[in-house]
Amino acid sequence: QVQLVESGGGLVQPGGSLRLSCAASGSIFSISTMAWYRQAPGKQREMVATVTSGGSTNYADSVKGRFTISRDGAKNTLFLQMNSLKPEDTAVYFCKMIIRIDVLRSYWGQGTQVTVSS
Known about the structure:
Elements: E1 4-7, E2 10-12, E3 18-24, E4 33-39, E5 46-51, E6 57-59, E7 67-72, E8 77-82, E9 91-101, E10 103-108, E11 112-116
Parallel strand pairs: 2-11
Antiparallel strand pairs: 1-3, 3-8, 4-5, 4-9, 5-6, 7-8, 9-10, 9-11
């Protein structure tokens, strides 16, 4: 039912920028908390940023001041603007939807690769 499709990943030089997008299907996007996670090879998946349905945002310390999460309710799309990219940002980035309707449920996209290479 719920489909999340990430796009916008790629190869970028250190100091460069990328904007990731997550297109969501279904009718529950507007009342969901959305998040970006990332996972590097051999490492634990970590939260990068979250945004609630009310627009409240939260960021991992490692990306604070460099990344911006936002959402477009009319387009059912989540964004992650990534500036001043570092090699340490290299990972697969995943879009996540968290929604509570009777029960708490989570949905994940398939991920998009971001490589920051010098």
